[in-house]
Amino acid sequence: MGWPISVTVNGEKVSAEVEPRLLLVHFIREKLRLTGTHIGCDTTHCGACTVLLDGVPVKSCTVLAVQADERQLTTVEALHAGGALHPIQAAFKQEHGLQCGFCTPGMMMSSFALLADNPDPTEEEIRWALSGNICRCTGYMNIVKAVRAAAVQMKEAAAVPAGAAVGS
Amino acid sequence: MAIETPMKGFIGESIKRKEDDRFIRGKGNYVDDITLPGMLHMAILRSPFAHARIRSINTSAAQALPGVVAVVTGEVLAQHKLAWMPTLSGDTQAVLATDKVRFQGQEVACVIATDPYITRDALPLIEVDYEVLPAVVDPYKALQPDAPLIRDEKEGQTSNHIYHWEAGDKAKTEEAFSKADRVVTLETFYPRCHPSPVETCGIVADINPATGNTILYMTSQAPHAHRTLFAIVAGLPEEKIRIISPDIGGGFGNKVPIYPGYVVATAASLLIGKPVKWVEDRSDNLISTGFARDFHMKGEMALRNDGRMLGLRVKLLSDNGAFFADAQPSKFRAGLFHIVTGSYDVPAAHVEADGAYTNKAPGGVAFRCSFRVTEASYLIERLVESAAIELNQDPAELRAKNFIRPEQFPYKSATGFEYDSGQYEKALRLALEKAGYEELRKEQAEKRKKGELMGIGIASFTEVVGAGPGKHYDIAGLRMFDSAELRVHPTGKAILKLGVRSQGQGHETTFAQIVAEELGIPAADVEVQEGDTDNTPYGLGTYASRSTPVGGAATAMVSRKLRDKAKKIAAHLLEASEADIEFDHGKFFVRGSPSKSKTIQDVAFAAYTNLPDGMEAGLEGVTYYDPPNFTFPFGTYLVVVDIDRGTGQVKVRRMVAVDDCGIRINPMIVEGQIHGGLAEGFGIAFMELITFDEEGNCIGSNFTDYLLPTSWETPKFETYETVTPSPHHPIGAKGIGESATVGSPAAFVNAVIDALGHLGIKNIDMPVTSDKIWTALKAAGAAE
């Protein structure tokens, strides 16, 4: 009863046979063993399972794995591809934007999508963009600060001439 | 690579968190991330009814489903004497129901299968024949003589009454009331809310059938206590049980109790001989695990006309659900509620508490709260607001008039606590200054003339945290001490092992900083380990703000123990008398000649290579710290709200928070704790609610109904500090994890009432929703 799918996972093509009812989040966590994507509510509220499908943030607990067929899937593990931290990751640490760490991957993926779309968001725009991701620990203040800091960092990095190292 | 600041992580330095590196990479290791070879999965069938007799359970269809390995019912567990288990409050709780179900969501049967999807397929195939019984969801009704008896299986239990408990001096309080110019009364209900950590509860139980070795990977805030309780409950040999509490995705008290799912998964692993994983879904978590509050309170304050408080009288009724399962010190049936005199010098006080069984999920003391200090703080701070309105006095000045003054510490409260230290007026004045209180009052007066609703709410809370002392405070008989083991290796690096367990509080950083301060080893060189009972000294765990007050004290004391030995070794290396050796942040030197010195790293190396004659090798030690008293963090929160007359909508314009938790080890982390608590306090005040219809159906069983604050609604916080060290804590720290959830709900609600008080609206119970405000405005003829 397997259904063949082919997904580009963090830049690498993966082929698998999955049950049609398999949720994308379970495909990611159980089949791909990428456990950075978390499950917090099963009902599309908390956003802990946020990943990018073709660059768009989705809550992977409410997407079927078969829907990812022939698409680009990006999970938190891709952020530090090559070993260097992404500015968003560095900023979350720098600004104390995480505590228990459980919502953090989803929060960072939503931030990633926001900054791709709007490289210079206001505080209000950040708060709106992250309002589908629940954090129970931080009260959001430092998360908002982290996203602002990452935006500044990414802008500065983009201004560096090509070939210069983009540090973490 | 960003350049790290050259800080060594001494106390007071906001170094970045050591634990973050794995979390930001998605490399945390939470219970659900654990997969073992041959592992099976478990799901729980829960009762759809709040109260029903079970006539029969037929599991044959479920059992026949391919992939199902076992279906466990209460009957199966009863054969192993596991159908019931003791609770942390000396009651019993059904693991899987045998006779009746007593709340909606109660555990009835468990399916164990090769795949989690198959467990879900099998649940609806279990046929349960229920005879529905009348349910009781209101504790007042539960105590009426004709109420259905919920705990009919308990010998001698003829009503739904659980306990009666009193604190303070009744006669003295009556006398105070007889002399009062006036008595201010407030009846209020602190509704049921839920900690809802983003990670739910779960376990992977792995019992090796050949050796009996039992490894339980569990979402546990108290792994050592849980090991002992597992040994007692399940009859397993304690030396064979190893509880590993891996990274925890938030706890807030939700992960203190032992839940039926843990017990069944463990029993199933034992019986089947394979690892079994159980992870709750969100509804499982919301409808069955440790909630908070559900506390009906009536407070009366006796006052002189000038506003001086003379006495306090409180009557309480707690709704504990179907089983009395509060995780709290065993001698204190209403927890530490008797801290209710708060920050005030109240000469006489008396508290009477009763508990009732209802057909609701068990629990009551979870959620970022030191055993009902949250309800107590809410009541007194709301009462002060009521008194200010009735006496027509400024609520800030009424507080200042009644504060326990700095020179009164140590202060013995009317209900028996000895407060360690406080500067309550200093914190209040700072909050008023930062908020621009006088200007705000002027603005409010002008707005009121125009018919606009603006409110300023204050709460000057005092907490009681850091239990023990063990002599008086225990959980299920286990004294509330805590522990630290420190091993300094020859190269000067160290491992610190603790009996507490972080759920996001930053222990790996904070506790390394205590070692850095006391021993001079940079925090970066101190690896903090927690959560593995085979690998850490026994302790009671992390809840009720006890990690820094107790585990932190143990860390300081064990560091000092090692420092004493290090001093002897340094004297040997420096060829000086020990009496002449001085120590300063990692350097030992001969008094008067600071150039002649040895570092802690030199000394650590010598502890394994070049010791004085007769000295034992090594630089290691362990301390079990029994605190002489609680600590008493405090502060003042000030909230400014604007209310829309047309909709009842509240806009929190400002939230100014002054906290005093004594010495701050890592100010960045302290501030983060305050932010999180304030957001939760905001949620409790305005949106979070678990309630029930008359049949006992839980309303609040998912995040559509149980509302959590998001980044969009949550206000911005303005945080400030005063520092009043605890005189009895080795480093003067008091604990900060819960201050904000304890103190802030009253500040939010007081702000709303301050906006509406002049219209005759004296109370609105939480959550203070727009519809409640609008209804109150309409009743007062003031809605638009």
Kindly provide the radius of gyration of chain A, computed on alpha-carbon positions and rounded to a whole number of angstroms.
16 Å
Give me the CATH fold name of the largest domain in chain A: DNA polymerase, domain 1
Mean pLDDT of chain B: 97
Fourth-tier CATH superfamily name of the largest domain in chain A: [2Fe-2S]-binding domain
* Low-pLDDT sequence parts of chain A: 163-168
Biggest interface: chains and residue counts? A-B, 61 and 59 residues
Q: Globular, elongated, flat, extended or rod-shaped: what is the shape of chain B?
A: globular
Uncertain spans of chain B: none
CATH top-level class of the largest domain in chain A: Mainly Alpha
- Number of DSSP E strands of chain A: 5
What is the terminal-to-terminal distance of chain A?
45 Å
Question: From the helix content, strand content and strand pairing of chain A, which structural class follows?
Answer: alpha+beta
Biggest β-sheet: strands ordered side by side in the sheet of chain A: 2-1-5-3-4
What is the domain total for the residues of chain A? 2
Q: Report the CATH architecture of the largest domain in chain A.
A: Orthogonal Bundle
Instruction: Estimate what percentage of residues of chain B fall within beta strands.
Output: 15-25%
Overall pLDDT metric of chain A = 94
The rounded distance between the terminal residues' Cα atoms of chain B is 58 Å
